[in-house]
């Protein structure tokens, strides 16, 4: 049975990572200002060096971009970050 739980956990994690990346890309496209070149579609925000993103246990917990000069609103995708504590 352990294998089944492990498989479920892996699939759930992959789905979350995909939703997380989609949500971050939506934020990136909603904002105006200098490009966030480290926010690439083909990289993991929790496994790479995404400017302003902090993760804990593969979950985005902090988005700090105050010194980047970005402007714009927050799209509804921000709700994807269930562990976000700092914005």
TrEMBL record:
Taxonomic superkingdom: Eukaryota
Entry protein name: Uncharacterized protein
Species this chain originates from: Smallanthus sonchifolius
């Amino acid at each position: 049975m352990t294998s089944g739980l492990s498989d479920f956990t892996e699939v759930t994690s992959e789905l979350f990572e995909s939703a997380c990346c989609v949500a971050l890309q939506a934020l990136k496209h909603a904002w105006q200002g200098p490009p966030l070149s480290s926010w690439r579609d083909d990289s993991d925000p929790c496994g790479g060096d995404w400017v302003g993103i902090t993760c804990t246990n593969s979950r985005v917990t902090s988005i700090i971009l105050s010194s980047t000069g970005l402007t714009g609103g927050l799209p509804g995708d921000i709700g994807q970050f269930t562990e976000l504590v700092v914005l």
